[in-house]
Amino acid sequence: MKLLLKNAYLLKDPFSQIQKTNLLIQDGKISKIGEIQEDADQVYDLSGKLVMPGLVNCHTHAAMTLMRGIAEDMNLEDWLNKKIFPIEAKLTAEHVYYGTMIAQMEMARKGIVAYVDMYFHCDSVAQAAVDFGMKALITRGLVDIDGDGERRLKENILFFEKWNGKDGLIEVGFGPHAPYTCSLKYIDKVAYVAQQLNAPVTIHLYESRSETYQLEDILSTNLANCKVIFAHCVHLKDEYIPLLAKENFFVAHNPTSNLKLGNGIAPIKKLLDHGVQVCLGTDGAASNNTLDILHEMRLATLLQKMNDPSNITVEQALCMATIFGAKASGLTSGKLQVGEDADLIVLDVQRPWFLPFENMKAHLVHSASSLDVFATMVKGKWIYYDGNYPTVQIKEIIEGFENSVRDLTQNNV
Amino acid sequence: MKLLLKNAYLLKDPFSQIQKTNLLIQDGKISKIGEIQEDADQVYDLSGKLVMPGLVNCHTHAAMTLMRGIAEDMNLEDWLNKKIFPIEAKLTAEHVYYGTMIAQMEMARKGIVAYVDMYFHCDSVAQAAVDFGMKALITRGLVDIDGDGERRLKENILFFEKWNGKDGLIEVGFGPHAPYTCSLKYIDKVAYVAQQLNAPVTIHLYESRSETYQLEDILSTNLANCKVIFAHCVHLKDEYIPLLAKENFFVAHNPTSNLKLGNGIAPIKKLLDHGVQVCLGTDGAASNNTLDILHEMRLATLLQKMNDPSNITVEQALCMATIFGAKASGLTSGKLQVGEDADLIVLDVQRPWFLPFENMKAHLVHSASSLDVFATMVKGKWIYYDGNYPTVQIKEIIEGFENSVRDLTQNNV
């Protein structure tokens, strides 16, 4: 299967210049960029449109779309205990499937090609990703403070065996929830298993003010040897920052969720200055409320400029949303070059806020909105194209989602 | 001329419930809401769409779209002195017309029905607003530190006489730039003139850390008796807050611009708690870089939640973007009720991020993006409708804008 994308403005990566060119895509990969004489099975004229690497969402709980907007303007304890937990206790595999599907529709519509998930009923998450054709690094949320850590870890291992590598879309990792819900011993064991399976780990770290554990303790476990995505890192002491500057460590910054839940702003400028690889996440829709990496990129950038407008350059912002996220997730390259998976997005840039056109790279960070995304492609397949979601039956998904919400909220809200 | 909007979800104002209904619009005003039997000249079936009051942008320099993205990631001094001022020195009336037109296209596309402008070549701004059919409170930026304050004030007065009240769209006010560019005597004189003409005033106040003048001094002038929109108020001392809690005073909060220029966050929660009327602004496109009140509303809300998620309710957020902005500008009511001008927007709410549908009011603040706006109406006329701008010739505007940018940047960038 050969696809030709013609006459597009192309941004190969954050550091390259935008140029008008053509892309040939063969069997899911970019096979040629430039003058193309070959015939293709499908030809798309993308005049007036811009092609760039797809965005990566490095921290979410996709199925929480089911709880979007159920509890606004509440303090964190009430939000969790009165609203979120009672609903999560009722979640079935079917609910999670539909919640994840709606999340994927939103992410595809907003230019996201790959995401990192931590939740439960993981078979549903993986099935939804495969059905949709989206890339996902999926981890089972693991907690042992209730004494039931072993069961969950076993579930994560079985899930790994069943799904890891599926269709070139799914990667399975391990999700010890946080240092305040997992003992050090449990984190150590989970990380040991992950290391044996060469699987990545994702864990919440220093999300709220109340998290005062020592990072040295956490890193004295097998976690130090794993590929790890640390989500949040808002209340990270300055002296801990150099400890995260390692090739196998990533920080997933979730600026909207951190503000909305009252946690504050992560020290992203300092982390980047120390060489820490920072990627972006949306967190779940219950605490955001959108799954929109362009929004997170712009917000992350604005927040760091608060005291100095030279903080976070346009290129750094684009790196967080693409290359660093790609590397963290391990699912894509974040660059458009020959031989890479065709994980890309098409933006309609013939709009007033993309003028003057000469300053396009700045516009991608500071003017673009997720709804400028015209199409989203994963491994050479459109998962969103001009109002349509070619891989799924929208009606059935929305019906399934609405039925799930009805099930979940009947006796709670 | 009678327009019937059928089968829409309607949010009349921030405090009302969303209900499915019909609106009849006659001669630019809402004439009936509910069951409508009458014939109309034009009927629009808005099934699956939501109608709400149009948004108001209470602080901008519209023509600065010409400088969008020309200088990113620079400190404030270099940004102003090396980039903005040299270009502004070359601006002609024609440049300002096209810059303002592109700004209005963006604002209309993003649901803004009225804006407050401070700039120069004001005839061009007013002509652009009338040509486009958008409501605008236009003020001439006034400065006297260079000894040329009188000439500018005269220009503002002449502009008032020529344009105030034009077509029910234009209101003219006075724009003393800031306490650090205007002497107290000059502010007093400008305010006196404004008071005599019953015209509003807008002034920058405490935008940056370096602004340490006394608010008592500013309010000892005739300004105290005017209707005033104070833009920014970031570095406002706590003890000054009660001084702004007056029926004739408004604070225009510009969260994106304040972050992007390194100025910080205005104390909006405290201002609202003291009963100050806070509205929202985008500032100019050179320091934002979009003209997007839905974005400002969400950002303003998130920033105040940073330390307490119960700060700024959904209703408060909607009030800032609609009712308070409407009152500040004096151009519209911010409410959809019989007898009011039909200044409204239509959102397409059949999208994944508006699910669950039950939580729609929260979604309008925390999930909606400006590109969910399907149509924008001012005084009963569509100024944006489903991809089209019915009142203007887009091609000619874009050409005029691009020629202007070429003129301005040839020897500068």
UniProtKB/TrEMBL annotation, chains A, B:
Substrate binds at E88, R140, H177, E207, D283. Keywords: Hydrolase, Metal-binding, Zinc. Residues 50-383 form the Amidohydrolase-related domain. It catalyses: S-adenosyl-L-homocysteine + H2O + H(+) = S-inosyl-L-homocysteine + NH4(+); S-methyl-5'-thioadenosine + H2O + H(+) = S-methyl-5'-thioinosine + NH4(+). Its cofactor is Zn(2+). InterPro entries: Amidohydro-rel (IPR006680), Deaminase_MtaD/DadD (IPR023512), Metal-dep_hydrolase_composite (IPR011059), Metal_Hydrolase (IPR032466), MTA/SAH_deaminase (IPR050287). Zn(2+) binds at H59, H61, H204, D283. Its EC number is 3.5.4.28, 3.5.4.31. Catalyzes the deamination of 5-methylthioadenosine and S-adenosyl-L-homocysteine into 5-methylthioinosine and S-inosyl-L-homocysteine, respectively. Is also able to deaminate adenosine. This is 5-methylthioadenosine/S-adenosylhomocysteine deaminase. It comes from Pseudothermotoga thermarum DSM 5069. The gene is mtaD.
